[in-house]
Amino acid sequence: MPPSHEVDHPVLWSFRRRYLLALLSCLALGCGAEKYQERLAQTSEYFEYKDRINRELGPEWTGHGISIKVPKQFQLIPPPATPDGEEEEFASPTEDHRQPHYLGIELPGLVGAWKANVQANAEGSEHARTAYLYLFSNYDLYHQPPDQFGVSVDPTTFMSDFERQLTAAIGVFLPEGDGGTGADKNIRYREMIPTGPPNSKFRPRSDFTAVALSPGIPVSDVPLEMQLYEWLGSKVQVAVLMVYPASVSPQEHLQERLQLAMETFVASDQPPRPAGSSSGPSPSGQKGPSRSF
After folding, report:
1. How many CA atoms lie within 13 A of 71 on its CB side?
2. pLDDT digits (tens, 9 = 90+) for 187-237
3. CB-based burial of residue 158 (10 Å sphere; 0-12 exposed, 13-18 middle, 19+ buried)?
4. CATH of the domain spanning 58-267
5. Angle 279-284-287 (CA atoms, 0-180°, nearest 5)?
6. Residue 136: which of 200, 68, 196 has the closest Cα?
């Protein structure tokens, strides 16, 4: 007697249901595995990025509403001692030995300076030379008292004044605008940092005006090159300037490390509050992109 379809139908349906449930479970597990692998890859990228930051950059420097990690080979140049108490009232202005006097100038708004011993090629062999990194800002100019002639500094013109003094000292003319590229000399260009993934996954991107400066006149016994980054807030303006031998060894990775350092750059766009004020951010307070490490 042939098997009854009425008897077999429920059995067949039960089998199909179990099969579909198993298939759906496998698919669900597969999707979960893909998500897990994706998160694992992102975590791995994050720790690789963090390791690179720690390997190539030094400790975080914070002051004057700014924080940054500079390339590890650069060492902080201590600022000149500040007189305390009654001595400050009668003290004569102290020369700031951090200034780039080898260029024959003193630039406005110096808040931090570093130097590094680097290898550079000279006459076919490697020699130890010095590179410098500077941080300038109009942050403290907002409450700077007038000079002896009663003239006050305008903090809003800081960057144009800074550029004018620097380029005049090194014999460079900067055309208007920022239509250049990183490969151009003495032409401004725009640069978003981080430039893209994977680094941009872990840091908010910031917009800088940059220029690679090549002095048009001899400014030192060693030919020099410079890289300038400018950050312009609505009130606060910051310039980061690296000065290095033109023949610096590629093994120093100065440009790559400076760009990595700029990924850690954070600045407050709020000038310091006047003395005695109880409102507004503290001079050391940071307003800007938060950092994850």
Report:
1. 23
2. 999 999 999 888 888 899 999 999 999 998 887 778 999 999 999 999 999
3. buried
4. 3.40.1000.10
5. 75
6. 68
